[in-house]
Specification:
single chain, 221 residues, alpha+beta, 5-stranded mixed sheet, 5-stranded antiparallel sheet, 2 helices, 16% helix, 51% strand, elongated
């Protein structure tokens, strides 16, 4: 008849079994988390007006194989400042400048994943008509303020009075390469630099010719 292990022998065998399982499972877990774990950050709105305090919503999403996952821990930062430790949640912040948000999640010891998003602060563009062949600061802001964008490229409808020039004024760092209307190029003069109070320099593009009164559909590229 076979002999049975005493309690000390059973304990020893169980300990060795746990060590073996742990040594085999831990690397597999690490591989799974590294391959299938993900952290994403979103911020809305993602474009705000420079210098104007705006509330934004920052959300972090932690997933494993595409499904929502609760990690061992998460740290959400605004720049270098911690603003949240709640996974799969959102937080509201008020900012007035370009700001980067990051989230780092700890899946298990040694396995961390991170994501980031940025809210970009820009000065607004001003488009419109003016009979003047040059503009000053007040002339620029007297045009129609456009929706906030990081590039002037796109389609617009601009109202121009009888005998007025078409003016497109964009903040420093942006550039208008081409203006078209109804499939034809609109001849534009070289950009003039205009210092706008509280907003830095603007590049202002003026049509070479004056327009008849109307609403002009243009495409900027």
């Amino acid at each position: 008849m076979g002999k049975f292990l005493d309690s000390e022998g059973v304990g020893y065998l169980w300990g060795k079994t746990k060590e073996l399982v742990s040594s085999e499972v831990a690397p597999l877990e690490e591989m799974v988390y590294k391959a299938h774990g993900s952290v994403a950050v979103s911020v809305s709105p993602s474009v705000i007006e420079n210098g104007v305090a705006t509330e934004v919503t920052v959300k972090n999403t932690v997933t494993l194989s595409g499904e929502s996952f609760s990690p061992a821990g998460v740290v959400v930062k605004e720049g270098s400042a911690q603003i949240s430790t709640a996974a799969n949640s959102s937080v509201k912040r008020t900012v007035n400048a370009t700001t980067t948000y990051t989230a780092e999640a700890t899946f298990i010891d040694g396995v961390k994943k991170s994501g980031s998003a940025k809210v970009t602060a820009v000065y607004p563009m001003y488009f419109g008509g003016s009979a003047s062949s040059s503009l000053d600061s007040a002339g620029v802001t007297g045009l129609v303020k456009q929706g906030l964008k990081t590039s002037p490229n796109g389609s617009y409808r601009v109202s121009v009075g009888q005998g007025e020039y078409l003016w497109l004024c964009v903040p420093s760092g942006m550039k208008v390469n081409k203006v078209a209307s109804a499939g034809f190029d609109v001849p534009m003069e070289a950009a003039a630099t205009v210092a706008v109070s509280g907003k830095g320099n603007y590049s202002c593009y003026r049509s070479s010719s004056k327009f008849n009164a109307g609403s002009v559909a243009i495409t900027v590229s």
